[in-house]
């Protein structure tokens, strides 16, 4: 699977670690940065990742900031993006299974590497269940 990933200055360390984790699991990753902890604006990176995911329908995105909240809010401004802020494996599974989420968001100040790995593993192991969830997802896309 191909992932587009971005962060702001508050998530650089966890982003870099996540890029290596995904590559070690055989996934392709395009890293939109930033590559230092110099202050940047999270919406700039959320928009880059959301635009890339929309252009490459088979891909997924990952956005990281301090809390994950700002990234998810900015990404969800894009029609067709369903960015889910996940704090554990269960919320990642439900985001994919019930909401057909296409961008995973989490916060470096909220989750450590162990929890981030369990979130990513759950995301990777889950897929949209369809069925009764289809109509609900369609209602998101107004």
What do these coordinates show?
It is a single chain. Strands 2-1-3-5-4 form a 5-stranded parallel β-sheet, with helices on both faces. The model has no long low-confidence stretch (mean pLDDT 96). With 142 residues, the chain is of the alpha/beta class. Helix 4 (89-99) links the parallel strand 4 and strand 5. The protein contains 6 helices and 5 strands, in the order E-H-E-H-E-H-E-H-E-H-H. It starts with a strand and ends with a helix.
Largest sheet: 5 strands, parallel
Unreliable segments (pLDDT under 50, ≥5 consecutive)? none
Strand elements, count: 5
Question: Percentage of helical residues?
Answer: 40-55%
Strand content: 15-25%
Order of helices and strands: EHEHEHEHEHH
What's the pLDDT, averaged over the residues?
96
Q: Compute the separation of the termini in Å.
A: 28 Å
Could you give the order of strands across the largest sheet? 2-1-3-5-4
């Amino acid at each position: 699977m191909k992932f587009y990933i971005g962060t702001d200055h508050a998530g650089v360390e966890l982003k870099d670690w996540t890029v290596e984790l995904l590559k070690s699991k055989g996934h392709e990753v395009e890293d939109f940065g930033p590559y230092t902890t110099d202050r940047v604006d999270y919406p700039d990176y959320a928009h880059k990742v959301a635009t890339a995911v929309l252009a490459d329908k088979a891909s997924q995105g990952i956005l990281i900031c301090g809390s994950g909240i700002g990234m998810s809010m900015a990404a969800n401004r894009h029609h067709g993006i369903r960015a889910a802020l996940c704090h554990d494996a269960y919320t990642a599974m439900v985001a994919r299974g019930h909401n057909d989420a296409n961008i995973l968001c989490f916060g470096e100040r909220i989750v450590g590497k162990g929890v981030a790995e369990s979130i990513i593993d759950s995301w990777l192991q889950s897929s949209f269940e369809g069925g009764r969830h289809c109509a609900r997802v369609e209602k998101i896309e107004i």
